[in-house]
Design brief:
Length: 164
């Protein structure tokens, strides 16, 4: 079996895609699903300077966060989380949005609904709705808290809605 690297596969796919005309892409149809997450992008507060919402220094590295967690062993501690952004996520929605962005006719079916109205698409998915030919919500979106640091990201998923 051919063991190509991710890089080789990506380059091959890009070459094939570049060789297609806009009409050939527009003639393609895709059904994509089935997950859906609402991602909350968070910075962890290291030192707060005032009660002004954004007047703080964030913990800048994952190692720094890990060190703070380690010092909490055997006792209770508190971490202030500052939500920076909320956006749609999930492998399916991101792929569907990318495919629709290049002109492919996409139908998306997945967990992208509102918590209190699962069949109604969460407004955070409006960019996906605008690009796709059709979008069908089957359950509420799951959630991810993404703690962002200067050297990476820790993602804490709450996938119950996509596992039901």
């Amino acid at each position: 079996m051919d063991q190509r690297s991710r890089q080789e596969i990506a380059e091959s796919a890009a070459e094939r895609l570049a060789g297609l005309s806009a009409d050939e892409i527009a003639d393609r149809r895709a059904l994509i699903g089935f997950d859906g997450f609402i991602d909350t992008i968070i910075r962890v507060v290291d030192r707060r300077h005032s009660m002004v919402e954004e007047d703080f220094d964030p913990i800048s590295t994952i190692a720094g966060f890990a060190e703070r967690c380690a010092t909490a062993a055997g006792k209770s501690t508190n971490f202030e989380m500052h939500a920076v952004d909320r956006r749609f996520g999930g492998n399916g929605p991101l792929l569907a949005h990318a495919m629709a962005s290049i002109g492919t006719g996409v139908t998306y079916v997945g967990s992208i609904g509102q918590p209190d109205a699962p069949d109604r698409v969460d407004p955070l998915y409006d960019p996906l709705v605008r690009r796709c030919e059709r979008v069908v919500s089957v359950s509420p979106a799951a959630a991810t808290d993404a703690l962002e640091f200067d050297d990476g990201k820790l993602m804490f998923n709450k996938p119950a809605n996509v596992q039901a």
